[in-house]
Amino acid sequence: MSAVGELTQLAKSRKKGGPKEKHPDNKSALVFMAPWLLGFFGITLIPMIASFALAFTDYSLLAPPEFTGLSNIKEMIGDSRLHNSLVVTFLYVFVGTPLQLIMALLLAVLLNQGLKGLSFYRSVFYLPSLLGGSVAIAILWRQMFGANGLINQVGAMLGFENLPGWVSNPDTALGTIILLHVWTFGSPMIIFLAGLRQIPEMYYEAAAVDGASKLARFFRITIPLLTPIIFFNVVLQVINAFQSFTQAFVVSGGTGGPSDSTMFYTLYLYIKGFTQFDMGYASAMAWLLLIIVGIFTAINFFVSKFWVFYDD
Fold first, then answer.
1. What is the membrane topology here (predicted)?
2. pTM
């Protein structure tokens, strides 16, 4: 009897109420899935449902939540500090992410030239991605770009005078955090490098025979065939950038200063929820962030059909 025939007989026996066979690995599978299920329900799904309900309440953590309808949303519309945090976050995402991806792509192309010791260079360039979001690196960054930090000391040796404290100046503080974001290019670089390895060498050989320059080969072969990888990195890094928190928190000392120039959206959400204990308002902000990230992700997918090419 064929496999299809066996499946048909099994389906008929079950419809007739026949005995159900228990797979011997079912219990083992459930045991291995238990941590994920506990995490999904305990850390993701249930907190999301709770935050959605709290978004329509006035909840200070010290008293039971009180239903207030759409008052949090009305307050958000008139909250100038929230509007400023959105502007700061958008600048961070739409300036820092393209610069980070360009840096990652250029270094991936460089590493794909058959260099000796590729594993070493790959590890060195990937290391900032592991450390970039850490508190230690953020503290180091604040010290480097402070008034008496390493950057100003090097500048003084080169003859520059009266250099500002980069992290204490409202005009430059956000730029230092964007620079830290660009520096963590290791993760997209590794993905670009894997994509470059998948491009057949015969395309480059044929283009070289036709007299195409290296620049022409890069823009007419590498970039078009790499568009699915570029799209993947864009979606991933935009979502990550919207959720950035640690760098701004540490560099600004948890205040978003100076003059709210580094007040990221997630940092303002944290201040409302855990400093001012306005958990209802913070919950509404969290859902607004989810909607914003969802909209930009949907736009990315919609626009991708005009510039992403898949090799059929």
1. Multi-pass membrane protein
2. 0.84
